Each structure stands twice: as structure tokens, then as C-alpha cells.
Amino acid sequence: MLALRAAAKGTAHPFGGLEFRRDGVAQCFARFRRRDVRTVEISGMYAPVRGGGRHAMRTVSALADLHGVILYLVAASSVPDRMDTARLVDWYREFGFVGGRPQGRGIAMVRLPETPSD
């Protein structure tokens, strides 16, 4: 969690959480919650600009790999006309998330940290 706070900053945006910026412009707002010692839940993401979510997920995934952290989320679209839940699940798979167990109105997914190959 400390590494996330170093990579992004707290925000006064109504979505809350942390703000991921690129070239001085907010790309994505994301909320996180520690589930246990090695697992962090991504409890929400909002990207006001195209590519903002991808920018944040690359950062979060790299930090998770670096620190050996498991990422957990429930993929559920809050804006279906922008990206429905099925597309969102596919999008998270691009970042190494696996799973597909229905949970509430979404799909539970997990991403194990990748280790560099020798």
C-alpha cells in the first residue's frame, strides 16, 4: 500500500482513492483495500480519459510484481455502454488476472505477482 501511495497521490475527486497522473493530467482514480498481508483489493477504478485505466493498471501491476503482492478485484461494469462486464473481464485478463467466479453482480478475479525469469 505504501508503494501505491508513492506512485499516486490522494485526491479530492468525488470518486476518492488515489489519483494516477501522466504529464500532469489525472488519468485514473482508483480505490484500494488491504485484504491481508500479501493481498490488495482494487475496490474501484474510474478513468476520465481514454487509456487512463491502462496507465494505472500497468503501474499497479508493476508494483505488485516488485513487492510480491496478490491483486484481487470483482470486475463489474458501472457504465455498461462504455465497457460491459464481459469486456471488462477480458481487459483485466490482459494484465494477468485470472478467474471468473460470479460474485454479486460481477466476476471475482485474482492476479498473482509475476517473478522475473532468470
Any overview of this molecule?
It is a single chain. About 25% of the residues lie in helices and about 40% in strands. With about 120 residues, the protein is of the alpha+beta class. It has one domain: 3-Layer(aba) Sandwich (Aminopeptidase), CATH 3.40.630. It has a seven-stranded mixed beta sheet. Strand 2 and strand 3 (about 25-35) form a beta hairpin. The protein is globular. The mean pLDDT is about 80.
Low-confidence stretches: none
Instruction: Give the helices and strands as they follow along the chain.
Output: HEEEEHEHEE
Looking at CATH, the homologous superfamily is Gcn5-related N-acetyltransferase (GNAT)
Strand percentage: 35-45%
Q: Could you name the CATH topology?
A: Aminopeptidase
Number of strands: 7
**What would you call the shape?**
globular
Rounded to the nearest angstrom, the distance between the terminal CA atoms is: 27 Å
Mean pLDDT: 82
DSSP helix count?
3
Give a short overview.
The chain has 118 residues and is of the alpha+beta class. The protein has helices spanning 2-7, 52-67, 85-93, and strands at residues 9-10, 18-22, 25-36, 39-46, 70-75, 98-103, 106-111.
Fold topology:
Elements: H1 2-7, E1 9-10, E2 18-22, E3 25-36, E4 39-46, H2 52-67, E5 70-75, H3 85-93, E6 98-103, E7 106-111
Parallel strand pairs: 4-5
Antiparallel strand pairs: 1-2, 2-3, 3-4, 5-7, 6-7
Keywords:
single chain; 118 residues; alpha+beta; Aminopeptidase; seven-stranded mixed sheet; 7 strands; 38% strand
